[in-house]
Amino acid sequence: MTASPIDALLRTPDPERGRHLPQDLAEAASKRLGIACLVWAGLWGFSLLMNNVVSPILSPDVPLDNAWPWPGNPVAIAVIVVSLGFYAYTRWHACDCRLSLDLGLLYEILLAFAIGLVNQWTPNTEGLSWICVLVVVHPMIVPHTRGLTLAAALVAASMDPVGLAITAARGVEIPSAPVILWIYLPNYVCAFLALVPSHVITLLGRQVSEARELGSYRVGKLLGKGGMGEVYLARHRMLRRPAAIKVIRRDALGSGVLEPPETIVRRFIREAEAASRLHSPHTVALYDFGVTRSGSFYTVMELLQGIDFEALVSRFGPVPPNRVAHLVGQACHSLAEAHSVGLVHRDVKPANIYTCWVGLEADFVKVLDFGLVKGELDEARDRTKLTAPEITTGTPAYMSPELARAEDVDGRADIYALGCVAYWLLTGRLVFEADAPMKMMIAHIRDTPFPASQRSEFAISRSLDELILACLEKDPARRPQTAGELAERIAACDVGEPWTPAMAIAWWMAHLPDLTGPGREPPMAAEDD
Fold first, then answer.
1. Whose CA is closest to 82, among 132, 45, 30?
2. Tell me, what's the pLDDT at 520?
């Protein structure tokens, strides 16, 4: 049986397997390795000074061999020379940063051998070895893949026993094997602990790198985040066109708390497919879709220069009827196209509809987030439900009765939700108030809403009031039957003076001046060049 594209995406391999750091992070780690080499050269130089110059002056009667055996001087000089050579290589203009990181693992082993040889020339079985410090700190400075990090740390941890073996070969009595194992067990414990900082630093660095480079887009600051992912500001590297990138993290797919990974992936892919089939100027444009090397899914969308309906009312209060008619009529245009190709949004709500400044036009509406879309083609192709067991799609405050009952729905469910949105714009209140989602859904199924005119600070005409109540009918057959019909009927309502482009521009200049004007370039993150 041929695996589905979704199965292939879910089986995206772990990026830690056989992969190294991204180029820019590898270069930074290579430079840190050079600094670490200077530090170690300084420490060994300090030991030379203290044991050959200062110690004989301060303690002339104490033999030097007790604290600094004769191999100490040649070993220290060798380590200093090698360290300075490593430093010079990391600063060389032709340095291969990936090679320098590989050599950095050998450098870790060399340092451990030098420490073990000097420390164990006269058997030293008291306290923790400096090798413990080395094997823990080195991966923090120079992170590498997990396998090589562990291998180098284990070899480095063995240099104290190697030093004892060399001492035993010279005929010096050394402790028994059980004593050696017990004394130097912390070396090996530290070797395994070294995996933690190396893995964390590498993973965080890779996430930062991917957040900056997704496909042809360079990503900047975080715009928002949710339970499964984030939305970032981005710009095409060649065209310099601004965009918004929505990312669903791989770890969120693996949690499966509310929905299995397959369901989340299908929903994400369906949103991209649905958006790609819609061309209304009032539907947010999809630029790209893909999967990162770490298995995270992303879509690149048109960057909206505006504010969603939920924030609009929360920040500035209820909206006058003439403007509501202007805004809702445009949302009807987007939904009408979706319904014409057999797509039902199923999650129409204020947070998913934006009013924007586009070119020279203010109050230009965009509908987004088609992640719960349902269509005829989808049903024929995939009989799998897009919701987890006992979970209903949509948002309870804007959910049609038939959707709340988990029945089959058509475009009239979106018309009900759009009626709820208009109600929110006019009143700043939900159609039904409840303290639990289930109670909210039950209210949509059986309760009769109060007319918006009874709860709004504006004078709402009878025609507009009745049209909104018609959208909120329990029986879909009694609602406006299409989004196009709703647009026509709302345009015919008495809303007083029509909302004009001049009025829209004046409102934006007064309330959202930072978002006004054609061709504005949104700021990227500080590291953008």
1. 45
2. 62
Rounded Cα distance, 251 and 230, in Å: 13
Phi, psi of 367 (to 5 degrees): -100, 135
Domain borders along the chain are 23-204, 215-302, 306-515
CB 371 within 8 A of CB 270: yes
Which helix (H) or strand (E) segment is 206 a member of? helix 195-212
Closest CA to 261 of 7, 459, 45: 7
The CATH H-level (homologous superfamily) assignment of domain 306-515 is Transferase(Phosphotransferase) domain 1 (1.10.510.10)
Q: Where are the alpha helices (DSSP H) in 320-375?
A: 321-340
Domain 215-302 falls in which CATH fold?
A: Phosphorylase Kinase; domain 1 (3.30.200)
* Active site (annotated) includes residue 378: no
- pLDDT tens sequence across 96-129: 887 888 888 888 889 888 888 888 887 776 667 7
Catalytic residue among 160, 308, 347, 369: 347
pLDDT band at residue 510, thresholds of 50, 70 and 90? very high
Average pLDDT over residues 144-161: 82
Asked whether 337 and 283 are in contact (CB, 8 A), the reply is yes
- The predicted-structure confidence for 194-236, as pLDDT tens digits, reads as follows 777 766 666 666 565 555 566 677 777 778 776 566 788 887 7
Strand residue runs (E) in 209-351:
213-214, 217-225, 229-236, 242-248, 286-291, 297-302, 306-308, 343-344
Cα 145 from Cα 19, distance rounded (Å): 7
Q: Report pLDDT digits (tens) over 419-450.
A: 999 999 999 999 998 888 899 999 999 999 99
Q: How would you classify residue 234: left for phi > 0, otherwise alpha for psi between -120 and 50, otherwise beta? A: beta
Strand partners, 246: 231, 299
